[in-house]
Specification:
Elements: H1 4-28, E1 42-50, E2 53-61, E3 66-71, E4 76-81, E5 100-104, E6 107-113, E7 118-121, E8 130-133
Antiparallel strand pairs: 1-2, 1-8, 2-3, 3-4, 4-5, 5-6, 6-7, 7-8
């Protein structure tokens, strides 16, 4: 039978083991920590995709012209919306003949509206294809 001192030592050892495991898990999985909404003006989605692989993501709006998509695997894309594609009510205008474009990670990217509330950014030589929203 353990005495009170033995029980206290065991609790300390278990606490140290738990803290060590938590720290190691945090170091090995840093990408998974940032995709969830932890700010205002953010929406989580469960059916996004990156290069055809389905996963969760979130869209964090930085304002009318800026935002970002963070995927659960750690990939993140900053988006600067091109204002000429929006009307005074901040709604997309009718799709132009050459399509819609936005700046994604400082690269001009074509995007399509797939169904209402789902946006798909086409792949190019610099960046992969991704979808987010109510897809």
């Amino acid at each position: 039978m353990l005495g009170q001192t033995g029980v206290n030592n065991m609790k300390k050892q278990l606490s140290i083991i738990a803290l060590t495991c938590s720290a190691l898990l945090g170091l090995t999985l840093p990408a998974f920590a940032n995709w969830r909404c932890d700010v205002d003006r953010c929406q989580e989605y469960t059916n996004c995709s990156l290069n055809g692989v389905s996963m969760a993501c979130s869209y964090k709006s930085g304002g009318v012209e800026y935002g970002g998509v963070d995927f659960e695997n750690g990939e993140a894309f900053s988006i600067e919306w091109i204002s000429e594609y929006f009307n005074n009510s901040s709604n997309l205008i009718e799709e132009p003949k050459d399509g819609y474009f936005a700046w994604v990670n400082n690269t001009k990217r074509r995007f399509n509206v797939i169904d209402e509330g789902c946006l798909q950014f086409q792949a190019n030589s610099a960046l992969p294809e991704f979808k987010y929203g109510m897809c």
